[in-house]
Amino acid sequence: MSIADSRRGRWIAALLVLLGIVVALELFAGVLGVLVDIVDANYLRAVLRLTVPIAFAALGGIFAEKSGVINIGLEGLLIISAFTSIAVAGLLGGGDATQAELWIGFGSAVLASVLFALLFAVVCIEFKADQIIAGLAVWLIALGLAPFASKVIWGQVNSPPIATLNNWTLRIPTTDVVLFDASPPVFMMLISVPVAWYALNRTAFGRWIEASGENPKALDTVGVDVRKVRYTGVLLSGFFSGLGGAGLALGRVGQFIGGGTTMVNGRGWIGITAYLFGNYNPLGAFGASFLFASLDALQIRLQQLGYNVPSELIGIIPYVTVVVVLAFVGRTRLPSAAGDHYESGEE
Amino acid sequence: MSDPDDAPGSDDGGNPAPDTEGDDSDPDSNPDPDDSWQGRADRALGRLVDASAVERILISVAALVLSVVVGAVVILVSGWAATCQSAFFSAPGLGSFCYDPVSVYRTMAAGAVWPPYNLAISLKETTLLLFTGLSVAVAFRAGMFNIGTQGQLVLGALGTALAVVWAAPFVPAGIVGALVLVPLGLLAGAVVGGAWGAIPGALKAYADANEVITTIMLNFVATGIAFTLVAEVFKDPESQTVQTRSIPEFAQLNPVYFDSTVFSLYALFGGLAMAGIIYWLLNGTAFGYDLRTSGLQPEAAEYGGVDSKRTMVSSMGLSGALGGIGGAVYVLMVASRWRTGIPSLGFDGITVSILAGNNPLGVIPAALLFGALKTGSLAIEFQLSVPNQLVGVLRGLIILFVAMPEFFRMVGRRFRFREDRPVATDGGGGSSADGVSGSATDGPSGTIDNEGGDRQ
Q1: Tens digit of pLDDT for each residue in B367-394?
Q2: Residue ranges per domain, chain B?
Q3: Is the interface score ipTM higher than 0.90?
Q4: Which residue of A has its CA nearest to B217?
Q5: A333 and chain B: CB distance < 8 Å anywhere?
Q6: Taking burial as the number of CB atoms within 10 A of a residue's CB, which of A187, A195, A235, B343 is the most buried?
Q7: Is A7 on the interface with B (CB under 8 A)?
Q8: Contact between B450 and A220 using a beta-carbon 8 Å cutoff
Q9: Which residues constitute the domain of residue A80?
């Protein structure tokens, strides 16, 4: 059996396990007589909203890692942008911020995330930091900075609740027929995924990103600056994570929660698993994010329905699944130069 | 994702250093004829232990100083954003600044050691951080990132609390009981933490699952399992909150010298001894050699007859056991039961280990420093109303700066450059944005450098 075959086999096995977990849980819920309550349009809508931070983190991670810089600080970028979005919108408009103020918060959050990613890029590319440790540092800095700033602004690690973004509704023109009605970040995600796929697979930029991670020397030889490509990859990871974090905070929760692991609660790490599972393909990563989010939605739903199952135990389902999936998928083939510094020959 | 083939702050293991400008500490500059894997591994080990020791200490100190400076900026900015009655400094057009970084750091330093009660709290933190720092360091030396010390500690603490509460009725109260229960509690913590830590080790060894992600995920799982077990099965019936029954008074590590605190000198001595034991284990035993070799050069270790998969599992088990003992000490000395809201000692352990260059003996000063930092942060919140989460910011900054030794080397080199060749400041990193033209025409030296940077 070739390596590719065995990898494919493991991947399929992981997919089956994941589907098995979903089905088993839903059967379990079905036995309790609530399957109908759970899987309906509202449930799918909830899943899409929960997919937002995971899928955006995954998209960002793909660009960074394909370009050769492993960004495991995605969790930290989500935290920073979630915090910034609420802080800016709250400072502008307080508890009942207008939509315009929320959008300013949204934009500031993306900017903050990109700036953080820039910091990470400088540290990794200019100062040749160990990417894994620097990524951990980005996460830990965010984990400290966001609650610290929350306390400075609000006197406690949680913000007061504020408004969320109004839904966008897609209608068939000149009629009242609603095609799709969802929170703006969900729209953005559904647009970003195919755009990211197109950019990576059908454009010159995508080929540069690929070459920058696989064979930077070749890219250098044809006259493309590897450093610029890598900066772009990392900044894109900041951009997407910014959308994800702000989408989580302003699209769904309407509050910043800074206690413990914060409101992001590991979704950045799950995003990393999602793109490994999706084998660096934006479409696959989105699929994996959707599956993880559906587990998350399921555990939230089971808790809401108030079954006599300890909520903390149901709460660990997504995390256990990530571990199981990683065990089956194992080591995906990294871009061969990922994690290495590249020196063009000028010094 | 890539293996941490060497520890932060050390020389880059496999890279022939591109700079020839008199970096004396770089052993790559005189090539060793022994090019076998074994020879390379020995040299890599030697390099880590001897040659870069001074540089590593310098980098840790520099990283610490830089963190304090950046922390001061954070304090200034947050003081600008905060509202307060009396600003320490205000300028027209700039606004007013509530917090004075100098006085914040002064309060922090003073609050860490005075009054004696605070000193005891600092040493209590130090004791716990010794174990979590050693836990992270052991995994690091074996080439793995154990971000899961927190989960290992949480479950180890639960194991300790349950074992001691269960065994308490069978032993006589008093010193005899303590001599049975305390070792039992430590053992239970070590076993549970070790078993939990071995899981990501096994997943990495046999299924190639990235340990950074699995350990972080297992932290969430550990907290959920511990909470559920206590809430559903082992809850103290007399309490409203989710916690186990209290361990008996005689099994608690009582304060020695520092009365009415939750700090026991015995535990501190235990932690210091543990640092010595781990140092000896890593540097003086065959197991330690296998562990370090598979951390630095897994292929070389395999070639040299080390079962690197089993080493991965056992070193993660050892790492988890140390985290579990940390949890045991937390129960026996601080909380006297398992309860929710266990502080993030595991994450602090990452900083301690990285600051210590992952050297077990280096963990001692790092834990001391970080313990003081944590206690000092309580003082700044209490006295100056600067949020104690500042210490979380510093925690991340320290790791970031230790991770970029090249930055400090560049700074160092820049100074040397200025003295030796004042003209040479122009040719550095800034101009490489011009693309490839330079490297294509730069002649032999450029080509060689290019190879060097590109080679794994």
Answers
A1: 999 999 999 998 998 888 888 889 999 9
A2: 118-370
A3: no
A4: A319
A5: no
A6: A235
A7: no
A8: yes
A9: 3-30+41-329
With 80 as the cut, is the pLDDT of residue B430 above it?
no
| Bond preceding residue A160 cis, omega within 30 of 0 | no
Specify the pTM: 0.83
CA distance A23 to A31: 12
From chain A, the residues in CB contact with B438 under 8 A are 344-346
- Of A252-256, A276-280, B34-38, B349-353, where does mean pLDDT reach its minimum? B34-38
* CATH number of the domain within which A126 lies: 1.10.3470
Q: How far apart are CA B334 and CA B248, in angstroms?
A: 13
Q: How close, in Å, is residue A181 to chain B by CA atoms?
A: 33
Contacts for A217-222: CB closer than 8 Å, 24+ residues apart: A217/A342, A217/B450, A217/B454, A220/A342, A220/A344, A220/A345, A220/B436, A220/B439, A220/B450, A221/B436, A221/B440, A222/B436
Residue A336 placed within a domain: no
Q: What is the pLDDT of residues B128-179, one digit of tens each?
A: 999 999 999 999 999 888 999 999 999 999 999 999 999 988 888 888 888 8
Q: Which of A103, A104, A109, A58 minimizes the C-alpha distance to A80?
A: A109
Q: Could you tell me which CATH class the domain B118-370 is placed in?
A: mainly alpha
Secondary structure (3-state) at B235: coil
Cβ-Cβ contacts under 8 Å, A128 against chain B: 12, 404, 406
In B, residues 391-410, which contact A (CB 8 Å cutoff)?
Answer: 391-397, 399-400, 402-404, 406-407, 410
Cβ pairs A/B, distance under 8 A: 230
Asked if the structure places residue A113 within a domain, the reply is yes
pLDDT above 70 for A202: yes
Contact A320 B221 (CB under 8 A): yes
